[in-house]
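Please predict the structure of the following assembly.
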Amino acid sequence: MKILIKKVSLLKDHQIIPEVNILIKDDIIDYVGSEIPKEYDYEIDGKEKLAMPGLVNAHTHLAMTLFRGFADDLPLREWLETKIWPHEAKLREEDVYWGSLLGALEMIKGGTIAFADMYFYMDKVAEVVEESGLRGNLSWGMIATLGDENKSLENSLKFAERWHNSCNGRILVSLAPHAPYTCPPSFLEKVIDKAVQYNLSIHTHLSETEEEVREIKEKYGETPVRLMDKIGLFNVSTISAHCVFVDSEEIEILARKKVGVVHNPQSNLKLASGIAPIKEMVDKGVKVGLGTDGPSSNNNLDMWEEIRLSAILHKGYKKDPTAIPASLALEMATKRGMEILGWKNSGIIEPGKKADLILVDLKKPHFFPRFNLISHLVYSANSSDVDTVIVDGKILMEKREVKTLDEEKILYETEKRAFLLVEKE
Ligand SMILES: [Zn+2]
């Protein structure tokens, strides 16, 4: 199957190139240039559209869409312990399936093409990735304080055997010890051994709150990042969500060990955790991607909001208008996110790369005058500007119509299931 995107504006290397033709052959970008290829099976008119790499949500808990708006404005631990965890305990496989479908639908409609998900009943999330056409780095969250950690590790490994590198590489599997405060070093060491043995990445929460840092220091005499370094976690490719409380020495560790840090500015603000020192991390060479975190602490899966927030939050926080420039915020949500999640052949539109891209509708009042489209994408764009989504060479949405999922059915089912879950109190 050959798809031609004709005369489209292209975002590449922090520049906008006008009137470019893109030819997709199966799952790969075959040609990008000014000539119009003659042989193709399907044509997309690129007039008034911008082609750019799809967005990457590098940390979320997708099925938490079911708890969106159910419990807000509470401190993290209270929110988890009194509201989220007791209700999550009632979730069944089918709830996770439908909640994840709702998340997948929201992501496609907002131009997000890849995500890292940590949750449970992950086979259902894998089915959603398979059906929706998205890319998913999936991991079964493991909480050792529940007492069945060895079983959950075994379960994670079986899940990896079933799904890692499946769907033409659209599904990757990671091992996910939830956090240092729910997984002691003795268990983390087992996880690290298995990650090495099975060649898997690790996805975890790290240094999210001051309370976590205090607790870990009291228990083990080290801060979370130093403790993780000491036990060898960073010798494995790691996706570390948050890293809000890290000092300059810890930032150097994260850079040296090539840890993928995922900045979730909206979730950190909403849960009043704090502001991660992202400017310092980027300056010291830490790999930083962006994420929404779960849609009940955000409360959506809109990566445009995370891009904009990353670009403005650190300016105000550092009192420096040059902190996190627009093009860097975009790169964190695209190419850098893809690298952190393990898809190194994506995140840029050029021949030989994976055909993973979105088309943004430029004919919107908030994109005029067109002085600087990169600036508009960061400071002015929103989810509903995304017109077309292509992942692995397949059209998932065209002219805002999602092709792979049944939108009406998903909205109906998730509304019904979410209310039933909450009523079971
Ligand atoms: Zn999280």
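Residues 306 and 336 are 14 Å apart (CA to CA). Residues 59, 61, 205, 241, 293-294 surround zinc ion (CB under 6 Å).
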